[in-house]
């Protein structure tokens, strides 16, 4: 069993509108845009990162906004819902705020003893705010959301699967422990993790497969401290029979990817070097940052990308 993984690093999804996506996460949800760069494989579109003040692993939601992309189709084989941690007794504030912003799909429920507020993002992305006791992570306070109600980071994520058995075994191998099971939901958690350390498996044997598009999660990333730990995880996964990519430099972390038995794309990302490697903390997410190989195309890229409100 692996011991290097500490919880989530980031979750990356697809969007149709860069400006609408940016406004929703920075204004409505009150997160900080910590990096404005481009999709390293398709530099004609942004890659936008939102999180706490410095983009701490376990707080960062990221997006590829592809103009004119078709909507995704929810189903199995995907991350069906991304959960954010908020303080106890803050759901009333959030329900009013999201109602005032025009967010759709608002509904209260409870999962594993915690109260939740479900809602949809601009592309019908599925989210939930979860009231969490004792989350000591500091929120970003430079936005419009008060500190006593602000998002602390991820709580976890819910994977929709036709059959959860093989993915459950994978999570156990990755260091997660089963901590509860209710109906068709099974919860796994990393003991002493980074706060973003819960994964729920929702088994839906008769549901159709998901289709990737706007509002879909592209991949979910798990955090390891450094490249040495990542190398250990990669070797262990290869030895177990998973097809794992070589290590890829994403400028702000190093990444490896592999497809799970249930069809979800997993990434293992390093906490190093972080989002302040090319911007000081006071100005994170302000300038367009490009990988070195695209700097010669900066003028062309900037002319193509739509402006974002700061």
In short:
With 310 residues, this protein is an alpha+beta fold. The chain has helices spanning 18-28, 91-101, 165-173, 227-240, 298-304; strands spanning 8-15, 32-39, 42-51, 60-65, 78-86, 107-111, 114-120, 126-131, 153-161, 177-182, 185-189, 198-203, 217-224, 248-249, 253-259, 265-273.
Task: Describe the protein in words.
With 310 residues, the chain is of the alpha+beta class. It has a single domain (8-304), classed as 2,3-Dihydroxybiphenyl 1,2-Dioxygenase, domain 1 (Roll), CATH 3.10.180. Helix content is 17%, strand content 36%. It has 5 helices and 16 strands. The protein has an 8-stranded mixed beta sheet with strand order 2-3-4-1-13-16-15-14. It has an 8-stranded mixed beta sheet with strand order 6-7-8-5-9-12-11-10, covered by helices on one side. The termini are far apart. The model has no long low-confidence stretch (mean pLDDT 97).
Summarize the SSE layout with pairings.
Elements: E1 8-15, H1 18-28, E2 32-39, E3 42-51, E4 60-65, E5 78-86, H2 91-101, E6 107-111, E7 114-120, E8 126-131, E9 153-161, H3 165-173, E10 177-182, E11 185-189, E12 198-203, E13 217-224, H4 227-240, E14 248-249, E15 253-259, E16 265-273, H5 298-304
Parallel strand pairs: 1-4, 5-8, 9-12, 13-16
Antiparallel strand pairs: 1-13, 2-3, 3-4, 5-9, 6-7, 7-8, 10-11, 11-12, 14-15, 15-16
Main β-sheet description: 8 strands, mixed
Gyration radius over CA: 18 Å
Percent in strands: 35-45%
Instruction: Please tell me what the overall shape is.
Output: globular
Query: How many domain units?
Result: 1
């Amino acid at each position: 069993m692996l011991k290097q993984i500490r919880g989530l690093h980031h979750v990356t999804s697809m969007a149709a509108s860069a400006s609408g996506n940016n406004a929703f996460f920075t204004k409505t949800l009150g997160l900080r845009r910590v990096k404005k760069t481009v999709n390293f494989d398709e530099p004609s579109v942004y890659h936008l990162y939102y999180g706490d003040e410095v983009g701490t692993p376990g707080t960062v939601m990221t997006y590829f906004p592809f103009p004119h992309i078709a909507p995704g189709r929810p189903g199995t084989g995907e991350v069906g819902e991304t959960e954010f941690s908020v303080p106890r007794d803050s759901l009333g504030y959030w329900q009013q705020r999201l109602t005032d912003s025009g967010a759709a799909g608002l509904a209260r429920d409870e999962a594993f003893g915690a109260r939740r507020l479900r809602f949809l993002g601009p592309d019908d992305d599925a989210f939930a705010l979860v009231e969490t006791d004792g989350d000591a992570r500091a929120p970003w306070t430079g936005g419009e959301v008060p500190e006593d109600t602000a998002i602390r980071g991820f709580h976890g994520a819910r994977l929709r699967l036709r059959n959860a058995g093989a993915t459950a075994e994978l999570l156990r191998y990755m260091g997660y422990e089963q901590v509860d099971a209710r109906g068709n939901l099974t919860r796994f958690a990393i003991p002493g993790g980074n706060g973003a350390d819960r994964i729920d498996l929702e088994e839906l044997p008769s549901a159709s497969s998901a289709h990737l598009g706007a509002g879909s999660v592209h991949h979910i990333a798990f955090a390891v401290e450094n490249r040495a730990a990542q190398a250990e995880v990669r070797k262990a996964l290869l030895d177990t029979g998973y097809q794992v990519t070589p290590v890829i430099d994403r400028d702000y972390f190093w990444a490896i990817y592999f497809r799970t038995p249930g069809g979800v794309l997993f990434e293992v990302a390093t906490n190093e070097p972080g989002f302040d490697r090319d911007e000081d903390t006071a100005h994170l997410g302000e300038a367009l940052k490009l990988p070195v190989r695209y700097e010669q195309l900066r003028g062309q890229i900037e002319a193509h990308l739509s402006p974002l409100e700061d």
